[in-house]
Amino acid sequence: MKLTGKQKRFLRANANQLRPIFSVGKNGLNATWLQEVGRAVAKRELVKVSIQQSADVSPAEVKQFIEANSEIQVVQTIGKTVLLFQEASQPNHRDISHGVFQL
């Protein structure tokens, strides 16, 4: 599903107060890291990921890796921070997605 501009704006507004809970370091990107991020996004729906200064990857590479290997959507990249969204798999965790899909 492709997000519209209004939906992305809504998600960015909800993510304003969030702190990054995952980071990409010198170990780079791998399947295990993506599985952990996927589990967090499945419960929280909206997650920030920071890219450390020692990382050998750029935000564009992180975006491409996540979108190519999962159903998670990259909402925004600002500097070395990437904002991720995916609708929760369990209905009781779908707080944010109800607002997104009403737009």
Describe it.
- With 103 residues, this protein is an alpha+beta fold.
- It has one domain: YhbY-like (Translation Initiation Factor IF3, 2-Layer Sandwich), CATH 3.30.110.60.
- 43% of the residues lie in helices and 19% in strands.
- It has four helices and four strands; from the N terminus they run H-E-H-E-H-E-E-H.
- It has helices at 5-15, 31-44, 59-69, 95-102, and strands at residues 22-24, 46-51, 73-78, 81-85.
- Strands 1-2-4-3 form a four-stranded mixed β-sheet.
- Strand 1, helix 2 (31-44) and strand 2 form a beta-alpha-beta unit.
- Helix 1 (5-15) packs antiparallel against helix 4 (95-102).
- The longest helix has 14 residues, at 31-44.
- It is globular and about 40 Å long.
- The two termini are 14 Å apart.
- The mean pLDDT is 93.
- It holds the Pfam family CRS1_YhbY.
- Residues 1-97 form the CRM domain.
